[in-house]
Amino acid sequence: VIETGTPAKSTLTTCAYCGVGCSFRAETQGDKVVRMVPAKSGKANDGHSCVKGRFAWGYVTAKDRITKPMIRAKITDPWREVSWDEAFNYAASEFKRLQATYGRDSIGGITSSRCTNEETFLMQKLIRAGFGNNNVDTCARVCHSPTGYGLKTTFGTSAGTQDFRSVEKADVVLLIGANPTDAHPVFGSRLKKRLRAGARLIVADPRRIDLVRTPHIEAAYHLPLKPGTNVALLNALAHVIVTEGLAKEDYVRERCEWQDFEIWARFVAQDINSPEASEKMTGVPASDVREAARLYATGGNGAIYYGLGVTEHSQGSTTVMAMANLAMATGNIGRDGAGVNPLRGQNNVQGSCDMGSFPHEFSGYRHVSDDATREMFEHLWGVELSAEPGLRIPNMLDEAVGGRFKGLYIQGEDIAQSDPNTKHVTNGLRNMECVIIQDLFLNETAKYAHVFFPGSSFLEKDGTFTNAERRISRVRKVTPSLSGLTDGDITIRFAKALGYEMTYDHPSQIMDEIAALTPTFAGVSYARLDELGSVQWPCNEAAPEGTPIMHIDRFVRGKGKFMVTEYIPTDEKTGPRFPLLLTTGRILSQYNVGVQTSRSHNNVWHSEDRLEIHPFDAEERGIRDGDLVALQSRSGDVSLRALITERVQPGVVYTTFHHAKSGVNVITTDYSDWATNCPEYKVTAVQVQRTNRY
Ligand code: SF4
Fold it and tell me: What number is the ipTM of this complex?
């Protein structure tokens, strides 16, 4: 896998896969990368790495990578290679036509969490200033938007509270809806080290993930809840803490809104939230819930880590707030070893949110309706900006199906494969008159596109990524861009063709603009990053070295806010036709929908998605291990091979979503988080039957 030889050059950069954000040295001979070596200086990884960052970079030079711009008038026409100028002029004339015909709000764009902070900032600037609307959204819509909503409401900022190193001081770890040994492996190793040293672990997950029992580690409690019942479980933990007098009232009085606490405490103390009542909803034994709650509240530093098993639910935002309530009630916030921390999926999903990718917020999470903020941007950008929040991705698609939304510029996002209810997505795309895709490959979404801008990989650009612990790290150009332009260059040239000029000599100047407009980034510059190696925001006059732990003396919003978190069951119900619940996750060697990892050597470890099914459910259906099975839901059906295992409980099936062939999002539902529209990927009622049809 690794070519040997003395590298002519070694360039320090950052992994472009998960939200751990490991530092690597890219070793090159000429313009060819020969290997990626984890960097000891990397504060997120301390010289460690996983099989994705280390080995899965071959996609950059994959044979099917597109390096020439292409256009076509209709999606049934063949693609035609054109010059960059022709592509920009065609795309710009189409977008201008659409706005002239259908109105200013008929077009929009989606930023990419695979691109740098600087490129994302440019993209939302183009949309707000160039398109003249706020129709910008990000893939965080389908993953961690509830984190943004929930943590901002309770603590005042849309980000995790701790640095990764903080886990080394945790005494009790409550891990909810996350599987770090597969999805965030380098953080997973750090966590394992702490657990081997004696920290106690509570796992709340429908599936028996590795950390429940692995050599030298055994979780104190595994709470195998029924998919979709996170809030009922968390309310039951809170019930025990409040009714047994385990809440740290002195802390709450000093640091939080006391009246809100009292309302919340009365709510969770109700019988409906008792562990016994919760058992009927979650399936988790009440005695385990009681003991887990006591351990979290009294076991020393309590740290919560969570993943998409929390956010991708119809009550995703409620679940995030329920975790924040627990941390505040027990005083587990604002110090080393405690906190509430999302394990972010993509390398720069934190950054893409920070940079103003949401339709209602400028960079730094400031609402577009705030006059003072808007005037600051207007002054620097030389345009009048809309004070109206724009459309979210699902709303863009709804409007497209309704014939009112006509043009979409998508940077590095494959919504036809990664978003829920594929039929609705493709119907929306089909109804648009100009879809622009900027990507490395002709992905599924490109089937509905009229313009293809060939994008650039992380090895071909300068910029920064921000990981799940708010750490801003440099991405450095290792090889020239195969298409001749970086993603940032493309956005700038497209903006110019539309008549909106953005002029920068180097991405460092974009960061300077971000710093000038974003208080939490005020102290960030490339010179500062070179000096410190990396820095965690907020980085400004008050915190020139950055902020590893947030909310130490006060919450960002002032006092912490408790929120009443009533459990409302999902509308996705099992029944005679669809008696099982499907939930999904990742595997170590693959990444998301597999665009990159499937074009790398990692395929030798995992070349197809399998359906995990409990022996009872398999036997009932006459399914043997390895059989091809049809997985049917109310939205559609797919086929994949069965893997019979007790990792899943009876009544629950599980699969990964890395390979286009299985296309699991075809069968997910339309339900989404009430606050953010984040899709409910993690709960789908299904039936499983043997089949012989792929
Ligand atoms: Fe890359 Fe994440 Fe693996 Fe680190 S843990 S090497 S960031 S995929």
Answer: 0.99
